[in-house]
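Q: I'm building a small set of examples for a reading group on sequence design. Run inverse folding on the following structure and report the sequence directly after it, with nothing in between.
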């Protein structure tokens, strides 16, 4: 009994033991001066998994389509079909950061969204009825149409209805409103805005009007604030100055990434066809640098300009530890073929595969966990220590695709998942890749490299001179950790 108690006390208080477990189980690299003990491990282990974690878009080197901030990087981290649309055509990097209180912000966003859906659903259902008379859905089913609207679509639809209501300014008895609309709304599109107040009683009308006006002003202020803080929108290097200031003040949180959903849903002229995802964890103390230094370090880290090292597989920590690597993210430039990725992995130029997920004609490759090293062989001491999480490709039409899948050429020693391996078949879709990660990752920054696009410009009559790349969303799921 005494031996067990002594052993327990040794294990409980051992920084080395829990530092190693944090790394093996969660990819958690301990920063100097920060906790690495049993209590931290237990708090992570017991934390409930979040449906989605709201990162904030902060940087891209691919510009914005038509310099229109409606297509800004932040759209990628909102779980809907509002896309990021680039100006450049290939090898575009974009960065998101997890800030403190991000869930409070997201909670407010969800609350406003649900309110707008409840107020706009009748007008949306009516328009669906008018323009899709041949469909068989009931009106009750069409009331759910608006739930598929992106945040941007919903906001613009609400604005148009709100404007319409105030332009018409026709007030009728609410007891007669339902009959009035049934007889008259189809003939007067300008009066569609009155459906915002459908089922609102006369006693609550003024209060509801004030609430809508306040929400409209709030949405407009966010739009104006964002537009003012997005710097360089006429160039390829674009960043959010407000978010960068929050990073400078070390207002970051941390999460354990467990799942992802990559989406190119929506009416996109140049949807992403291939890309890669990276993560890193930046300590709050390490981020205390000037805004200009942060921007320069972020840009250089993405372009392989910080340390002149590439992939290396020569050094190991111990028999059961992963290989040490230094990643040059630019090594993934133009890596737009699954076969090419397999060949590079076999040569040790990218990490070994941990899992390959095939969904429809889409594929996601999850890499084994890696550690980064500097030129001296120790831990890399740079601010943005990016490590690869995975590589993805939509519409994988390699001529030898069947051979790649059937014979597992180039990836024999890893797990493989097929559509039938997913419990929820709804997760498998042509325009969406659902990624249940085999290994968890502790991160507060995520980078996405958009390598190439599927060019649909002619089919969609897009008149631009060259293709860009569009990405609807990258939904990140896992546990938010308060360190």
């Amino acid at each position: 009994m005494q031996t067990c108690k002594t052993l327990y006390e040794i294990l409980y208080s051992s920084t080395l033991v829990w530092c190693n477990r944090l790394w093996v189980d969660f990819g958690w690299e301990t920063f100097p001066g920060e906790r690495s003990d049993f209590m931290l491990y237990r708090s992570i282990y017991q934390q409930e998994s979040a449906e989605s974690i709201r990162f904030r878009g902060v940087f891209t080197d691919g510009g914005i389509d038509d310099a229109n901030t409606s297509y800004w990087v932040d759209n990628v981290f909102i779980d809907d079909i509002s896309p990021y649309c680039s100006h450049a055509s290939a090898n575009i990097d974009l960065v998101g950061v997890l800030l403190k209180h991000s869930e409070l912000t997201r909670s407010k966003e969800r609350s406003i969204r649900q309110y707008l859906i409840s107020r706009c659903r009748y007008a949306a259902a009516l328009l669906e009825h008018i323009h899709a008379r041949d469909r068989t859905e009931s009106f009750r089913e069409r009331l759910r149409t608006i739930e598929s609207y992106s945040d941007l679509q919903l906001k613009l639809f609400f604005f148009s209805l709100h404007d319409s209501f105030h332009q018409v300014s026709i007030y009728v008895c609410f007891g007669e409103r339902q009959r009035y609309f049934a007889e008259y709304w189809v003939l007067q599109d300008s009066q569609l805005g009155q459906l915002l107040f459908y089922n609102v009683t006369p006693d609550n009308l003024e209060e509801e009007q004030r609430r809508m006006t306040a929400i409209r002003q709030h949405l407009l202020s966010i739009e104006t604030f964002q537009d003012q803080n997005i710097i360089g929108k006429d160039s390829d290097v674009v960043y959010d100055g407000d978010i960068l200031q929050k990073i400078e003040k070390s207002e970051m949180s941390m999460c354990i990434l467990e799942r992802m959903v990559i989406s190119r849903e929506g009416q996109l002229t140049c949807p992403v066809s291939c890309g890669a995802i990276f993560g890193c964890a930046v300590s709050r103390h390490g981020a205390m640098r000037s805004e200009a230094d942060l921007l320069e370090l972020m840009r250089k880290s993405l372009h392989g300009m910080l340390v002149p090292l590439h992939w290396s597989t020569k050094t190991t920590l111990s028999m059961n530890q992963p290989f040490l690597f230094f990643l040059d993210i630019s090594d993934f430039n133009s890596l737009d073929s699954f076969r090419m990725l397999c060949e590079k992995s076999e040569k040790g130029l990218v990490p070994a595969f941990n899992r390959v997920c095939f969904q429809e004609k889409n594929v996601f490759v999850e890499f084994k966990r890696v550690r980064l090293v500097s030129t001296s062989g120790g831990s890399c001491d740079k601010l943005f220590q990016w490590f690869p999480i995975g590589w993805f490709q939509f519409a994988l039409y390699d001529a030898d695709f069947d051979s790649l899948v059937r014979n597992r050429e180039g990836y024999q020693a890893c797990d493989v998942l097929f559509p039938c391996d997913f419990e929820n078949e709804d997760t498998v879709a042509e325009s969406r890749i659902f990624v249940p990660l085999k290994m968890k990752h502790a991160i507060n920054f995520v980078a996405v490299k958009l390598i190439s696009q599927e060019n649909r410009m002619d089919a969609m009559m897009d008149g631009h001179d060259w293709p860009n790349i569009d990405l609807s969303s990258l939904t990140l799921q896992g546990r938010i950790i308060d360190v």
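The longest strand covers residues 432-443.
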